[in-house]
Write a structure and sequence with these properties.
Elements (H helix, E strand, L loop, with lengths): L14 H11 L4 E4 L6 H8 L5 E4 L3 H15 L3 E6 L2 H5 L1 H10 L3 E7 L15 H6 L4 E4 L6 H13 L5 E7 H5 L19 H13 L3 E5 L6 H14 L3 E3 L14 E4 L6 H9 L2 E5 L22 E6 L13 E4 L2 H8 L11 H14 L11 H11 L5 E4 L4 H8 L8 E2 L9 H11 L5 E6 H5 L5 H6 L5 E6 L4 H10 L14 H8 L2 E5 L5 H11 L3 E6 L11 H7 L2
Parallel strand pairs: 1-2, 1-3, 3-4, 4-6, 5-6, 7-8, 7-10, 8-9, 10-11, 11-12, 13-14, 13-15, 15-16, 16-18, 17-18
Helix pairs in contact: 1-2, 1-7, 3-5, 3-16, 10-12, 14-15, 19-22
């Protein structure tokens, strides 16, 4: 039987076609892009790859954030394809998230033709210098026959050891010229197990401990890792805390879960970390936020006995010197923990129980000023959404309410940037709905946060993604205003915002929009949004005095802090 001739059979196999074929061979399902003329040949190659969905975004920053969120949800590297100079520069906000959150991401950048290098032509940028500080590796492929191997290596490198972003520059002529190189199979680096001696030291430390505590976070993490750490904590009756923006690494309803570290930490949890005699940190990056500015776990030498498990030796003892460093992926380490013998009778039951009670007490909402209470909105969603619902958010004081009052029930139900990047919530929600179309997806944003990436509402409408965006509109940049009032009371400058009518703005995009002026009206607005079967935006009219779950602006001003 004669094979049908396709369009690709009638023309030479270019570097662009080889790039698309290699991406398909690597199992890439989705590429996020803002098209550029430098990589038209690669886009043409993608036309013949039905297994890859090409998502056109409205800004490269949003595209990079979508790719990062896609990677978090799927466990596979996110891929973003952008053009040179301005396009490349716009991706940096998303790259920073991937770098700090240790998310595997492959950035492909169309560059000017090789003959234009170092000539100061239009949209030239110092690609390797700019990307060198933001990625695990950066390279320029000038020979089309090197494209398959470069892509396979980048894909592997993005996932290996401590995952993160990698960047590949592709000159326009490299993508246009003929490529005869075959497809290269992907492979992942094998990660080692902890030694018998190391595991014996962990077991010995726990046997001697009077107040041990587990701290989980970072990556790579998985559903299996969640189940293993929960099982281990149950067997040993040890409390578990989650690192900053890692609340969904443990079911928050688990009897050993005691809350998360980071911004506005529960004081009792903070005291528990300081007073613990053994801290078993599994995958958690012990940076300034998770450690409370190195007051909970001191640098360079902590007061507690610290056992630190990280995927890469490069990430151990960078700032804090542990008593036991273990270079091993969290899931492998947790599997080894199953061999440890649990104490016949827990010495830590009261310790664990008291911390659990402190966490559940922190879920009782303290009403903030105004007619719309963000804390009640978050609790309504926590109590009514399906357990599989995905919650996304960017950065701002509104996020304190989300992370304080939402109870995360399963792994990868929380997409939030440890990098503290404004604008992340909407792009992350789009990526989440594309990757998990059957799950409910809710994006939280502040008014300032949303305006950073609001144009991506058009992307949500274009692809028919029925996400729900909840905008806490208080007319100020809340986090900066809070710090401003603390340091310079009553000297307000540069933190007041004039905003659009967000509900009307959503309508103009073809989405559903609704303004909520009273807390009791939120439930009906949510119901209408869910029934609309299209992208929705619910605007909450928040009193600017409701600055955090614990403080009002008035209290901050009067305190003289």
């Amino acid at each position: 039987m004669k094979k049908k001739t396709s369009k690709s059979d009638l023309k030479p196999r270019t570097g662009g076609i080889a790039a698309a074929e290699q991406l398909a061979a690597l199992g890439v399902e989705r590429i996020f892009t803002v098209p550029g003329e430098t990589f038209i040949s690669a886009l043409d190659g993608l036309y013949d790859q039905p297994t890859i969905q090409t998502i056109v975004c409205r800004n490269e920053g949003g595209a990079a954030m979508m790719a990062e969120a896609h990677a978090k949800l799927t466990g596979k590297p996110g891929v973003v394809f952008v053009t040179r100079a301005p396009g490349l520069a716009n991706t940096i906000s998303g790259l920073v998230v991937a770098r700090q959150d240790h998310t595997p991401l492959v950035l492909l950048v169309g560059l000017p033709k090789t003959r234009s290098e170092n000539r100061g032509d239009l949209q030239i940028s110092e690609f390797e210098n700019v990307m060198g500080a933001l990625t695990k590796s950066v390279s320029i492929v000038r020979d089309p026959n090197r494209i398959p191997e470069a892509f396979a290596h980048a894909y592997q490198n993005a996932c290996s050891e401590r995952p993160g972003p990698v960047a590949i520059g592709l000159p326009e002529d490299c993508l246009n010229d003929r490529c005869d190189a075959p497809i290269v199979k992907s492979r992942r680096s094998a990660a080692g197990n902890p030694s018998t001696k190391q595991m014996a030291a962990v077991g010995s430390a726990l046997k001697k401990a009077n107040a041990p505590l587990i701290l989980v976070g970072g990556g790579p993490w998985s559903k299996a890792a969640q189940e293993r750490v929960e099982t281990f904590a149950n067997r040993f009756d040890i409390p578990i805390a989650a690192a900053f923006r890692c609340q969904d690494f443990v079911d928050n309803r688990h009897p050993c879960y005691i809350g998360h570290t980071g911004i506005a930490i529960n004081p009792k949890l903070a005291a528990a970390i300081r007073n613990a005699d053994v801290v078993l940190a599994i995958g958690a990056n012990l940076g300034d936020v998770t450690t409370g500015g190195y007051t909970l776990i001191k640098a360079p030498q902590p007061d507690q006995m610290l056992i630190h498990v990280m995927p890469s030796a490069r990430d151990l003892s960078r700032t804090i010197t542990a008593d036991q460093d273990i270079a091993c992926p969290p899931e492998k380490f947790l599997k080894m923990l199953e061999k440890l013998e649990a104490p016949k009778k827990s010495r830590w039951a009261a310790w664990r129980r008291d911390l659990r009670n402190a966490y559940t007490s922190s879920l009782r909402a303290k009403l903030t000023p105004g007619a719309v209470h963000l804390e009640k909105v978050v609790q309504t969603l926590s109590n009514t959404l399906p357990e599989s619902a995905i919650i996304t958010n960017g950065a701002g004081n509104y996020a304190q309410f989300v992370h304080r009052y939402f109870v995360y029930k399963g792994f990868r139900t929380c997409l939030a940037p440890a990098a503290g990047s404004m604008g992340y919530g909407l792009p992350a929600a789009i990526a989440a709905k594309l990757a998990k179309p059957k799950r409910t997806v809710i994006a939280f944003a502040g008014d300032g946060c949303l305006m950073m990436t609001v144009q991506e509402l058009a992307t949500a409408v274009q692809y028919g993604l029925n996400i729900i965006v909840i905008v806490a509109n208080n007319g100020i940049l809340g986090t900066i205003r809070m710090h401003q009032e603390q340091r310079f009371p009553n000297r307000v400058i540069a933190t007041t915002l004039t905003n659009p009518n967000f509900a009307d703005l959503a309508d103009s995009f073809g989405a559903f929009g609704q303004l909520v002026k009273k807390t009791e009206d939120f439930a009906s607005a949510l119901e209408r949004a869910l029934k609309s079967k299209k992208p929705s935006l619910i605007e909450l009219a928040i009193d600017p005095e409701a600055i955090t779950p614990e403080e009002t602006l008035a209290n901050i001003r009067s305190s003289g802090v």
